[in-house]
Write a structure and sequence with these properties.
The protein has 414 residues and is of the alpha/beta class. It contains 13 helices and 14 strands. Helix 7 links the parallel strand 6 and strand 7. The longest helix has 22 residues. The structure holds magnesium ion.
């Protein structure tokens, strides 16, 4: 019996379960179970920095709400959960919402015997191109890494010199530290403005003008220097520059648009529609790259993608680092079906991680190829997932995002 009283044979949700995994405990997978034997869906609830909060929302708010609901009513379930906490669009609640949403799409696909992209309109391309992450301790090492990816056929390559965040970190006498320095690599905006264009000059000299290259600024710059960098990078014709401004300064994209042609990609930190809506509708960015598991799942991503199509903006959903294979599987299904897809960020999972997720997406020479597996096409081996976790003390889990600083100790936005 459904809510309108019609006696229909419908599938309903019986339970939601959060499964913590990965060697550092940073992945959370939600399993939504149904009243049909063996029929369940998976969603990503991973939040590396605040995992217990997402689990709490699912276990105590969203999970009880979806029990007994028809699994096919994805839009209404999304809208109901969206306002269930009254305050909305926080990172924690949107992650929990995304996990339930993606699991419901997985179930709907399995019930239909179709991959999710077929429910979203079918294939808009034969394969999904992805971008690789090339890096090195020096420009020569970076060039070696880029050569490896070029030889493997990757269509787009992200480039950086140095550790996470790339150049601009001072060492030795160049750092000019105060007498009482804090214990941190000092980040210097002017050094970054010099080293980043120099890196691309060397890359263009080696690889020519046509190789598609990107760079991630990780929001490290003040807005004035972000404008300078975008202009300095123009001669190197990047595929895009990523997160040149933090979410707090998105109004500066209007200034950027007036003075530079360097394509702009932004969004991995976005959780609220006010962050991406005007950037798309005012045509201030070129690629929207929200993380599907941070903005409410496939239901939200499809709406963003269709809005972006109307305004000539392409998608480049965020992946990498702390993401799990279920989030990547969801992103690839959306990538395949949206005409205004731009590029997909890749992720390098370890063999033992892939073994815990049968059917996990595998990128071959820079492309992911669709299968006809129903739903997301990915499963979880709970025994192997538990083995990945080992004997980690989840109650004592503590993994805050690291803080970069300037020479004087001022915190730099990541
Ligand atoms: Mg990034």
């Amino acid at each position: 019996m459904n809510r309108s009283g019609e006696d229909l044979d419908v599938t309903t949700v019986t339970r939601t379960r959060c499964i913590r995994t990965r060697r550092d405990g940073s992945w959370t997978i939600v399993m939504v179970e149904t009243d049909q034997p063996g029929l369940y869906g998976l969603g990503s609830a991973s939040d590396r920095y605040n995992p217990a909060a997402v689990v709490q929302v699912i276990d105590q708010l969203y999970g009880p709400m979806v029990q007994g609901r028809e699994v096919g009513d994805i839009e209404d379930i999304w809208q109901s959960l969206y306002t269930a906490g009254y305050w909305r669009n926080g990172a924690v609640t949107n992650t929990a919402l995304a996990a339930i949403d993606v699991a419901l799409w997985d179930i709907k696909g399995k019930e239909a015997g179709l991959p999710v992209h077929q429910l979203l309109g079918g294939k808009a391309r034969s394969a999904v191109p992805c971008y690789a992450h090339a890096s090195g301790g020096s420009i020569d090492e970076l060039i070696d890494d880029v050569e490896r990816y070029v030889a493997d056929g990757w269509p787009v390559i992200r480039c950086q010199v140095g550790p996470y965040g790339g150049g601009g970190f001072l060492e030795g006498s160049a750092a000019r530290l105060p007498r009482n320095p804090w214990d941190s690599r000092p980040f210097d905006e002017e050094a970054y403005l010099s080293s980043t264009p120099a890196m691309f000059e060397a890359l263009r000299e080696r690889f020519g003008p046509e190789l598609k290259l990107t760079h991630d600024v990780h929001s490290h710059l003040s807005p004035q220097n972000a404008v300078q960098l975008a202009r300095l990078l123009e001669p190197y014709r990047l595929f895009f520059v990523e997160d040149i401004l933090p979410p707090e300064q998105i109004g500066w994209y209007r200034n950027l648009r007036q003075v530079t042609s360097t394509p702009q990609a932004v969004g991995e930190l976005f959780v609220h529609p006010h962050e991406w809506r005007s950037l798309i509708s005012e045509q201030l960015i070129d690629f929207v790259r929200t993380r599907i598991s941070k903005i409410g799942g496939i239901t939200a991503a499809i709406k963003i993608a269709h809005l972006a199509e109307a305004f000539g903006v392409r998608t480049a959903w965020q992946e990498g680092g702390d993401n799990d294979p279920v989030n990547l599987a969801a992103a690839l299904q959306v990538d395949l079906s949206c005409w205004n897809f731009g590029i997909q960020e890749e992720n390098n999972f370890r063999p033992e991680e892939l073994a815990a997720f049968p059917g996990a997406p595998v990128i071959e020479n820079g492309y992911w190829y669709p299968t006809n597996s129903p739903g997301l096409g990915i499963d979880i081996d709970e025994v192997k997932a538990a083995a990945l976790l080992g004997d980690i003390d989840l109650a004592g889990y503590h993994a805050p995002y690291g803080t970069d600083r300037k020479a004087d100790g001022t915190a730099v936005r990541p």
